[in-house]
TrEMBL record:
Thioesterase domain residues: 133-204
Name of the protein: Acyl-coenzyme A thioesterase THEM4
Membrane topology: Peripheral membrane protein
Organism the protein comes from: Nocardiopsis mangrovi
Annotated GO MF terms: hydrolase activity
InterPro entries: HotDog_dom_sf (IPR029069), THEM4/THEM5_acyl-CoA_thioest (IPR052365), Thioestr_dom (IPR006683)
Amino acid sequence: MTVDTQPAPRFPDPRDFGFTVLDEAEIPAELTALVGQVRSLVDAVAHTEAGPEALERARAAAAEATAALGGERRAIGAMVRHTRPDGGAEYGTVTNIVAGPTNPAAPPLRLERDGDGLRGEVVLGGVYQGPPGLVHGGWIAALLDQALGSAANAAGVPCLTAKLDVDYRDPTPLNVPLHITARVTGAERRKVFVSAEIRHNGEVTAEGTAIMVRIPLPG
Ligand SMILES: CCCCCCCC(=O)SCCNC(=O)CCNC(=O)[C@H](O)C(C)(C)COP(=O)(O)OP(=O)(O)OC[C@H]1O[C@@H](n2cnc3c(N)ncnc32)[C@H](O)[C@@H]1OP(=O)(O)O
């Protein structure tokens, strides 16, 4: 593969392109706690064998909780800024389905810089089940896509996934720590090549490679 460009050193500020950006420190602790509680609720609902009375009580409490949040909604496309220890900034959508900090439908995945790439750890419970006791293959692809996209973005390159290849090496179990790593392996014109793995107990369960394409930005 030809490597003829280096990623830009600094990710552009999304505010310059009309996006709303909040700093992750601005996310209220109460919202973070609510997100965690709703994740527990989703797990409880998915697995409950409670009787009709308890189910109706739970439904009414959930309806009350929904009403308590009122009609105040964050705009679609709102972004969150994470400031790294070295002072650099990284951005993601605040409701990203794989790693959005305000999205209870997202697993609590946090990807941190590790050398030239990124690493993170996540435990996926029963609501991510595909085959019995195993993580759904679509979610494995989603985790890899997020890690691959984040690795390209962490290298200062705003881009979208053009092509994603996933190799499912071994079944990925539920309810155990999964270790995710990703890194940029090369670049060619607007294409950025990235590679990622998911490991359990040090063994690779899935590998992903992607071609990300840099988004042309005005100016
Ligand atoms: C914070 C991080 C969050 C990460 C979130 C996770 C990532 C995501 O989920 S992104 C969402 C999913 N992806 C998308 O929605 C993308 C949809 N596709 C598109 O918008 C366009 O096809 C796009 C932008 C990828 C490329 O289109 P365009 O800008 O017209 O590029 P184009 O000029 O055709 O191609 C540029 C280069 O990429 C290559 N390329 C484009 N598509 C592909 C493809 N599918 N396979 C291989 N190469 C491709 C072209 O061959 C060309 O290469 P070269 O420089 O050698 O000629």
